[in-house]
Amino acid sequence: MIFTFQLLGIIILTGLIIITYIKETKDILFKNILTTLYISQLLYTTSYIAINQNINKEIFIKAYLISLTISYSFLAIYYIIKGLKNKYSSKETICDNKTKLAKKLFIFLNLITTILIIIAKLDINYNQISGKAILVTELFILMYSIINIISLKSYNYTKHDKLNIIIITIISIMCNIISYSFIRIPAVNSSITLIALILFYSMNSNNDKEIEILQLEREHSIKNNFDKSKFLKELSHEIRTPLNTIDGFCQVIEDSDNIESIKEDTKDIRKASKDLIEIINGIIDMAIIESGNLEIINEAYNTKDLINNIIDITNSKLKESKVKFNTKIDNDIPSILIGDTERIEQVLLSIISNSIKYTEQGHIDFNIDSINSETLCRLKITISDTGIGIKEEELKNIFDNNNDNNLEKNNLSLRYAKKLIDLMDGKIDVQSKENEGTTFTITIDQKNTSEIETVKEKKSLKTFSAEGKRILLVDDNKLNVKVATKLLESYKVDITEANSGKECLDILEKDNNYDLILMDDLMPNMSGTETLEILKKIERIEGYKIPVVVLTANAVHGMKEKYINKGFDDYLAKPIDKYELNRVLNKYLKK
Asked: Is the separation of the CB atoms in 531 and 566 below 8 Å?
């Protein structure tokens, strides 16, 4: 009867191994477990025949015991490695080092077990087998079972793996108890086939889940790529529109001698440039949002400046349009609030731009109400239009990244506006009727504090004479140097140009009598930041101090704070805003 069960076990294990190798399972450790379990089953069956045929049986029995302990050690290391991968999934180096250490430990344990079983005494009486070799085997199997149980607390296993470990451990311990009580090897050996079946089911179940996950990821990737493809088509159109304005007016100015006409054209070029910068900033923000690294920077800001800027930009966009732009602003809105003014402006302009895009006639209403307390101001902003509206079925998914609605009716910029609002802990709601119009309602809480008394409003530009003052202008782009030089002309400063960080240091080595350094950051060979680090060391040794203002196209939101933390005294973004430049020059030259 026992022999029949052993043959059945061998047949089942043979089938499992064949299936595993046909399916080309990549998990080598899983293959090793099945293989050693199969060898154990074969050796036991061989030893059973040897016992009955009065052949030298000890060598077969000890080989069986060794293969059995190796099987259980493989089983323990298999789950430990899975646990390590779960725990250190984001730290590959740590995971690899700990995995290598665990493998070395188990190789050492297997070596000790093998030596002990070989030298231990073994008593054989028909199929009743006892002796210290059996005790060593049972102790090591028990040790590996305990290791599996301890690993449950140490690692983040799935529920499926936890259940398998518990079942396999219970089977192993029960069979050990039966074997020890009745001094019969078959009790331990009968667990081999059952454990192999559990492992095989577990592995294939995991493989099926992995395939399902990969399939879902593939479908998501295809949908995401399709979404981005549509976005890029619209983006190309959005970028080319202001570029066409800029390039077109530049060509007109080249052939014009009318100064008044040229001045008027340059105003339109500036408007188009601002539109282009807005688009580029939007693209950068989208990438940062997707990466999950976007920061909300809360600072004191002037609400009047924010609202007026939005109104001015919108009016300039509607200059040639038949659409009226109506505004209604609550007079009780505090003049100073704390929040991320750039993000709020970006969200509101995105939604207003969307309304402009789909409204050919009628009006767009921009209303702001507020509810105030001593520490909080809740802004309720509504943007309504009389445009084409949105279909009811499309309205449900307007902020959904995974829908495939027509892009012309479901602008991607709205989705990113929604993400920004979520990051600011705000809410956005949309109501619309086809051919009647759309209303967006945004609610954002801003800090209202009496501790912030004033925030400087943007005043009219008042240049001053800084004759006798010296500026070192460091930039590798000659056109950027030319632009900066033109903007500085009215201040009558003495400008020295350097085309690299190295040239800047060479100039300062000969003459450090400068009042201000305007330095680009992203320069080849030596960046502005690297140049500043060297400059700071030289200043500490030689005892002079020149203010260094970073002049950079790296104008992502939050970069100003990062550059200040790196040691720069101030920050100017490209394209250079003449008001910001005036602020910097007032700060460092007008003394």
From this structure: no
